[in-house]
Amino acid sequence: MDKSKYIIPENLMPPAWYNIQADIPVPVPPVINPGTGQPITPADLEPIFPMPLIEQEVSQERWLEIPSAVQAIYQQWRPSPLYRARRLEKALDTPAKIYYKYEGVSPAGSHKPNTAIPQAYYNKISGIKRLTTETGAGQWGSSLALAGSFFDLDIEVYMVKVSYHQKPYRRAFMESFGAKVFPSPSGETNAGRSILEKHPESTGSLGIAISEAVEKAVQSPDTKYALGSVLNHVLLHQTVIGLEALTQLEMAADYPDIIVGCTGGGSNFAGIAFPFLGKQLRGEEKAIKFVAVEPAACPTLTKGKYAYDFGDTAQLTPLVKMHTLGSGFVPLGIHAGGLRYHGMAPLLSHILELGFIEPKAYAQLGCFAAGITFAQAEGILPAPEANHAVKGAIDEALRCKEEGVSKTILFNLCGHGNFDMQAYIDYQAGKLQDYEYSPEEIAMALAGLPVVAG
């Protein structure tokens, strides 16, 4: 039989995370303190994050050891399987070879525990008692709730209001692990009350939810904030995905020509792509086409501006240089809630500026159609976010068919859609619609960007 699943034993799990900052040819622009206009110091970040994570955020070391306590929990689902999508290849009648790394095997059903577990661990050893966070579709909130239960931490989650109502089972999952979940914007914070006063019917955004979580975190010395994407240390933790995939593709005697991932804040794309890009940057392997797929309803990479901006709506965070639609941008309530963020990871934005990745934006109807094609061939129903990567991989495979070439495609199936059935119900009922922003709407969203000298 042709092999379709590649499993590596626990003793071959990556012993360290990979930090691409050691290999990129041009350093990432500094993070700016909005009060002083100067690069931030560790002291500026200490009210929000514990020192071990701040050290990871600024580290230039290529490898950062994964603590044994984190490894022990990772082993409950890692290494995750790598699949050869032979039935999908047959359904598409493509000469391409398609592989996918399946992160839906985690207890939370997505890649998010890869960073939730270490973030909870580092906060615990730093004496922290409570973590606050935001969540869009609920995968990140679910993962931090899970991690909090492992390390006996109280968890408060500000869930984007449209997703809070769209995804009650995600909310129930978080609450089952002891987390408190609030619809954002909420009446729990000044940031939330301010939004509701101006926009009582606001459906929320990740930027608003971040503002609420950060505000609560800085009010108490035993509380810190945890972020599920965007920041350097989050992308770092996710590289276990790509590092495992490297070993698994060696087992398959193959190497990718194309790597595809969906992008909201950038963490799952970085997780699959950065270890391969690092080998390319060090001259150890051939160049790969990296495709970052985002929703047309939140086109950060394809229509956003590369500029300094706040990471949240209430402008409580430092200024980072990233591809952004403006911190006040509130995306439409598409079901891919985890991709509805106004900005993009500074590291990923910087790498795009250096020309190493190719961004694409897809409308949601085509992504759901691709997800159903994938499910009927491979037996896994993807999360709405993951459907964007599925769509990108299918398009690349069909391009191979048109051109009559065989290329190896790898994509990250970052989570299953078992908690997202309402999205599929709405799709099948014809209730979903596509939407793309006009240049005038984008210009209006970008009008309020902060001015940063230099």
UniProtKB/TrEMBL annotation:
Biochemical pathway: Amino-acid biosynthesis; L-tryptophan biosynthesis; L-tryptophan from chorismate: step 5/5
Catalytic reaction(s) noted: (1S,2R)-1-C-(indol-3-yl)glycerol 3-phosphate + L-serine = D-glyceraldehyde 3-phosphate + L-tryptophan + H2O
E.C. code: 4.2.1.20
Gene Ontology CC terms, in alphabetical order: cytoplasm
Keyword annotations of the record: Amino-acid biosynthesis, Aromatic amino acid biosynthesis, Lyase, Pyridoxal phosphate, Tryptophan biosynthesis
Domain Tryptophan synthase beta chain-like PALP: 75-415
UniProt modified residues of type N6-(pyridoxal phosphate)lysine: 112
Database matches in InterPro entries: Trp_synth_b-like, Trp_synth_b_CS, Trp_synth_beta/beta-like, TrpB-like_PALP, TrpB-like_PALP_sf
Gene Ontology molecular-function annotations: L-serine hydro-lyase (adding indole, L-tryptophan-forming) activity; pyridoxal phosphate binding; tryptophan synthase activity
Gene3D superfamilies: 3.40.50.1100
Cofactor entry: pyridoxal 5'-phosphate
Class of this enzyme: lyase
Taxonomy, superkingdom: Bacteria
Protein family (similarity comment): Belongs to the TrpB family.
Functional summary from the UniProt entry: The beta subunit is responsible for the synthesis of L-tryptophan from indole and L-serine.
Subunit structure: Tetramer of two alpha and two beta chains.
Designated name of the protein: Tryptophan synthase beta chain
Organism (species): Planktothricoides raciborskii GIHE-MW2
